[in-house]
Design a protein that fits this description.
The protein is α+β, with helices and mostly antiparallel strands and 660 residues long. It has four domains: 115 residues, Killer Toxin P4, Chain A, CATH 3.30.430; 114 residues, no CATH class; 121 residues, 2-Layer Sandwich (Phosphorylase Kinase, domain 1), CATH 3.30.200; 228 residues, Orthogonal Bundle (Transferase(Phosphotransferase), domain 1), CATH 1.10.510. Helix content is 30%, strand content 21%. The chain has an eight-stranded mixed beta sheet with strand order 1-7-10-11-9-8-13-14. Strand 16 and strand 17 form a beta hairpin. Helix 3 runs antiparallel to helix 4. It starts with 5 loop residues before the first strand and ends in a 51-residue tail after the last helix.
Length: 660
């Protein structure tokens, strides 16, 4: 009989030293077999081989009898304690799982797992094990909010810890003057995306194991999470192993408002309590290259004096490896031939090109008479140089020569998403499986910008035309000309100059110039509804009637006829209608009128990946226009008379790679 994938045990964490082995029924071996000998060899080598990083992997033998093992010690324990923990874990596994080819053991200070299959670089989230403190927290709702804020702060610090250590710990002042301490850690062989995904999932499991509790642990093979109301980790050890931080960059208040203060103690980076004043102070992690450091400084100077000239950003600084000779790009595009033109927007033209090594590129040649284009050029170069994610268009480099300013991107074969979903012929190429994959990819890309990149980035112009599709129809987010860069502790900002595309803009941004991660969530929700319906947000057609997509989706969801929103070609296909209706529900959660009601991108990724996760009931969309005798007053009643002063009613954004 298969063992359960999730194991639970009730324990007082402060009183016990826990250990748990899980034997997986993925094949057995016999005593004196080749696999038995290989496994003994591997396990016996771990304790003596693990070094101060606390991570080690080893393999021995040939397939199919090859034995593989990985060990990870908690990031705050000393080497001797780590080695002792590994010895105990190996002995316990051999005793508890005498003939299973795959097993995992969690100790107080380490995790050890072995398998006849490759382990290195592969995300493993099962089996899971939970421990929790039996005592309940006080002021539960506030406790949960503060814990979530702490974990959201620690996760990117762990993700970007490096190739040898992915761990972060810290504490925050919780309700009733008590502190909440937490430590998160991944095996360092994971990619940035897999580490982030593992920790997001672990945090999402807290309600399943430790709801309302003062402390708890979520243990997965590839990552672990623990929180308590008392210090349980070795702060001194974490400080010894942490990279030396650079001095924080101080920024005076610019056009951003806000005065909420939160104090977080980063026990992995130093012994100084850091007070983060929202949208006025950002800190730069050690190891960030000079280009990103300059980006923070320049963009904050730009925000501070938006109406002055921009001489301060003329001296752009970026690694030599990013710069192309103008002649190289000219030759690649056949002297910017019209035959290679991909499109033209308000601030420049985009050309397809091919470098001498055969690599295809997309080159944006900014208009020489566009002063604003110069600024956006520098913004993108400095911002995009360090953004690396499979769901973001990759900036390969740039060229500067006289008045010529070029951005060089990877070439994305299938142009933009809107050319598929709104085209009467090509939209049939996108079955539900492909559309669902596109929605998930966009969500992961935005999550990276909001939480998992080195700096928090708000895109501000998410729309179907700014999502490109590669040869396999994987989505890649483009156009960062209006993006705003924040420190990890900053959450929102405001501007007197509103720019974007009407229909995708959140109401608080369109009317008041207030933008945040939740304004990007709103735009993402509009894109979800467009992908499922196959129609533009401002002209949904149902029979003879034309109305706004958000209005139509909300009306049908409320009346229990949500399937009417789904593209007819999907309704007649083989896709899961349950998934489609669930995605419409998720889209409506994103476009709620109140920004605080909208979910975060981390929550959205979980909603899209887990059908078992219960969804809240959405409230009325911001752009819902009532009909008949509806007594509610529409949020944007009368707004059409002023929107043209602020928003871009066409789709020509200056950094569209393939403008219409």
């Amino acid at each position: 009989m298969l063992l359960p994938l999730i194991f639970l045990i009730l324990a007082n964490l402060s009183a016990l030293v826990q250990s748990q082995s899980v034997c997986l029924n993925n094949g057995n071996y016999t005593s004196n077999s080749t696999y038995n000998a290989n496994l003994d060899t591997v396990l016996s080598s771990l304790a003596t081989s693990v070094d101060s990083t606390g991570f080690y992997n080893a393999s021995f033998g040939q397939k199919p009898d090859r034995a593989n093992a990985i060990v990870l010690c908690r990031g705050d324990i000393q080497l001797d304690a780590c080695r002792g923990c590994v010895r105990d874990a190996a002995a316990e596994l051999l005793a508890s799982c005498p003939n299973q080819k795959q097993a995992v053991n969690w100790q107080e200070g380490c995790t050890l797992r072995y398998s006849n299959e490759t382990l290195v670089g592969k995300l493993a989230i099962m089996p899971m094990y939970y421990w929790w403190n039996p005592e309940n927290a006080t002021s539960v709702d506030q406790f949960k909010e503060d814990l979530r804020a702490l974990l959201d702060d620690l996760r990117p610090r762990a993700v970007y810890g490096g190739s040898l250590r992915k761990v972060a710990a810290g504490h925050i002042t919780g309700p009733d003057f008590q502190s909440i301490f937490a430590l998160v850690q991944c095996t360092p062989d994971l990619s940035l995306e897999d580490c982030s995904s593992c920790l997001i999932g672990a945090a999402a499991d807290i309600p399943n194991c430790c709801d309302r509790k003062r402390g708890g642990r979520v243990l997965r093979p590839s990552c672990t999470l623990r929180f308590e109301i008392y210090p349980f980790y070795n702060e001194t050890r974490l400080q010894e192993l942490a990279p030396r931080p650079e001095p924080p960059v101080q920024s005076p208040p610019g056009e951003h408002g806000g005065n909420r203060t939160r104090t977080v103690k980063d026990d992995g980076d130093g012994n100084t309590t850091r007070t983060a004043v929202i949208v006025t102070v950002s800190s730069v992690a050690a190891g960030v290259i000079l280009a990103v450091f300059v980006a923070i400084f320049l963009i904050k100077r730009i925000k501070q004096k938006p109406k002055e000239n921009h001489e301060t950003v003329d001296d752009i600084s970026t690694p030599e490896s990013l710069q192309f000779a103008f002649s190289t790009i000219r030759d690649a595009t056949n002297d910017f031939s019209d035959d290679n033109k991909l499109g033209q927007g308000g601030f420049g033209t985009v050309y397809k090109g091919k470098l001498s090594n055969g690599q295809e590129i997309a080159v944006k040649r900014l208009s020489k008479n566009s002063g604003q284009g110069d600024l956006e050029f520098k913004n993108e170069v400095l911002l995009l140089a360090r953004l690396q994610h499979r769901n973001l268009v990759r900036l390969l480099g740039f060229s500067l020569e006289g008045e010529e300013k070029l951005l060089v991107y990877e070439f994305v074969q299938n142009a933009s998403l809107d050319r598929f979903i709104f085209d009467p012929i090509r939209h049939s190429y996108l079955d539900w499986e492909r559309r669902y994959k596109i929605i998930g990819g966009i969500a992961r890309g935005v999550l990276y910008l909001h939480e998992d990149s080195r700096l928090r980035i708000i895109h501000r112009d998410l729309k179907a035309s700014n999502v490109l599709l590669d040869g396999n129809l994987n989505p890649k987010i483009a156009d960062f000309g209006m993006a705003r860069l924040f420190g990890q502790d900053e959450t929102q900002g405001s501007t007197s100059k509103i720019a974007g595309t009407y229909g995708y803009m959140a109401p608080e941004y369109a009317i008041y110039g207030q933008f945040s991660v939740k304004s990007d969530v709103f735009s993402f929700g509009v894109i979800i509804l467009e992908i499922i319906s196959g129609q533009k947000n401002n002209c949904f057609r149902s029979g003879e009637n034309v109305e706004g997509l958000l209005s139509f989706a909300w009306k049908n969801w409320r009346e229990g006829t949500t399937a009417n929103v789904v593209d007819p070609i999907l309704r007649s296909g083989s896709g899961s209608m349950t998934e489609m209706l669930r995605c419409i529900h998720i889209g409506l959660l994103c476009v709620q009128e109140n920004a605080s009601d909208r979910p975060t991108m981390a929550s959205l990724v979980l909603m899209l990946s887990s059908l078992s996760l219960t969804l809240r009931v959405p409230s009325k969309p911001a752009f819902y226009v009532p009909s008949g005798n509806d007594s509610d007053v529409p949020l944007f009643e009368g707004y059409n008379s002023t929107q043209s002063q602020h928003s871009s009613r066409n789709d020509a954004s200056i950094t569209d790679l393939y403008p219409r």
